[in-house]
Design brief:
The chain has 73 residues and is mainly beta. Helix content is 8%, strand content 26%.
């Protein structure tokens, strides 16, 4: 769900902070990896698995996501 942070370890969810700027990270919810917005591998993520995230890197890690090895966000 765009704009939602899911914590897969306990099922909690919360709204991502809103911003009018570009997303801070792009999440692949299928792999639980996050990428920099300019990562070329984002083009390979299907629309149903792609979520824009606006916020701190630590919030993604706390929610159970891992940084992608391709762009090292």
């Amino acid at each position: 769900q765009p704009g939602i942070i899911l914590n897969y370890s306990n099922g909690d969810n919360e709204l991502a902070p809103e911003s009018k700027d570009e997303p801070t990270y792009i999440i692949n919810v299928k792999t639980n990896k996050f990428h920099k917005p300019d990562c070329p591998n984002i083009a390979d993520i299907s629309a149903k698995n792609k979520v824009e995230f606006f916020g701190e890197r630590s919030a993604l890690i706390d929610a159970g996501y891992n940084p992608s090895n391709c762009c090292n966000p």
